[in-house]
Write a sequence for this structure.
């Protein structure tokens, strides 16, 4: 009897988690389930298969068997969509960048099954944390630096964290920073002041301050100023694009944007449904009002409005199931960049939610790493 109860509980948990492969989170507290379930889908395939076999041979209970077969079908969705998604991404890369030289450190494939279960190996790197950069209005701004073990001047990537412009530190996405640094880059994870206390354009001012600091200390942190890219996720990607697309911008060689807002007026007027973070409230806190009240400021804060010719090549990666920043905005930015004779690569992941790369060895992040490392190398090496 106890064994049967445990089997039923195991089946129910696996079924419940699998539902979130397709069910969007209605509220913020449930967002981790909607983000994480597709990324651990290969684990769910295993648990659902085990549960189905137990229901068939041990419980011999048809309703549970049917439920587990349904859950198994949900968990198989990312795997079923993966080949076509990877092929589209490869086509997008080749059409924009041509043939890319493959380095020994590159991931061998867009998805490595073993890494989904054991984790992605992260080689050792040097890191220097909590470097004081500035102290505007008595708010300490710091920087983390990650470098390969071998000393020497490296191409560099400025990293800007996300968090709806309200939260976060340079410690965010540390696994990614270490992974990329091990491939021969200096990664500079910088800081900025947060809304709602500090509204736009304070964040841009802080990034400019960080850039001056980096230029002044380039030799100390082994930075090749002629080979630099800027990258961010969500709010961080938004700030990265505004920084790189500015008229007086530092001459970055490339921009990488993961699931970032690009047109804030349209984002306010057409929020996702469901909207687990209350997008309009987030934008009001960041900018200080609505698009009707602050139309010029909304335009100034929208990378889409900054597009012109001669911008750095841009990689944009979005999830089709994103209920924070809808992928259609990333696609429209990519199209406008190309229309203005810029290089842009747009990759859309059908099963992915916002912040999909929070699961570092997940399906979506493996795909993103594969193309991001190749894009960066083509621009910086």
């Amino acid at each position: 009897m106890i064994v049967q109860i445990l089997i039923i509980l195991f089946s129910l948990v696996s079924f419940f988690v699998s539902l979130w492969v397709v069910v969007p989170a209605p509220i913020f507290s449930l967002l981790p389930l909607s983000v994480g379930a597709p990324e651990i889908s290969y684990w769910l395939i295993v648990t659902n298969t085990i549960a189905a076999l137990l229901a068939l041979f041990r419980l011999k209970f048809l309703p549970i068997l049917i439920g587990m077969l349904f859950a198994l079908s949900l968990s198989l969705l990312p795997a079923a969509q993966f080949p076509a998604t990877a092929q589209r991404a490869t086509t997008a890369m080749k059409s924009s960048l041509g043939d890319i030289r493959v380095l020994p450190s590159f991931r061998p494939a867009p998805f490595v099954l073993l890494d989904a279960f054991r984790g992605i190996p992260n080689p050792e790197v040097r890191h220097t944390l909590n470097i004081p950069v500035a102290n505007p209005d008595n708010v300490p701004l710091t920087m983390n630096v990650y470098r390969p073990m071998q000393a020497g001047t490296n191409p560099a990537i400025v990293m800007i964290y996300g968090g709806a412009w309200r939260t976060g530190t340079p410690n965010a996405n540390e696994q990614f920073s270490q992974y990329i640094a091990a491939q021969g880059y200096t990664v500079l994870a910088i800081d900025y002041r947060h809304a709602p206390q500090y509204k736009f354009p304070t964040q841009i001012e802080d990034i400019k301050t960080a850039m001056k600091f980096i230029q002044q200390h380039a030799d100390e942190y082994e930075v090749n100023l002629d080979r630099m890219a800027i990258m961010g996720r969500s709010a961080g990607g938004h700030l990265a694009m505004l920084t790189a697309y500015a008229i007086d911008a530092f001459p970055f060689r490339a921009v990488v944007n993961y699931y970032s807002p690009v047109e804030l007026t349209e984002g306010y007027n057409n929020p996702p449904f469901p909207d687990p973070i209350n997008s309009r409230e987030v934008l009001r806190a960041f900018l200080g009002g609505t698009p009707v009240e602050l139309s010029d400021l909304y335009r100034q804060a929208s990378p889409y409005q900054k597009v012109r010719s001669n911008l750095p090549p841009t990689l944009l990666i979005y999830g089709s199931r994103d209920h924070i920043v809808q992928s259609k905005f990333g696609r429209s930015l990519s199209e406008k960049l190309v229309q203005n004779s810029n290089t842009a690569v747009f990759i859309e992941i059908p099963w992915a939610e916002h912040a999909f790369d929070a699961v570092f060895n997940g399906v979506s992040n493996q795909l993103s790493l594969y193309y991001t490392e190749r894009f960066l190398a083509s621009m910086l090496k």
In short: The longest helix spans residues 77-97. The chain has a mean pLDDT of 97.
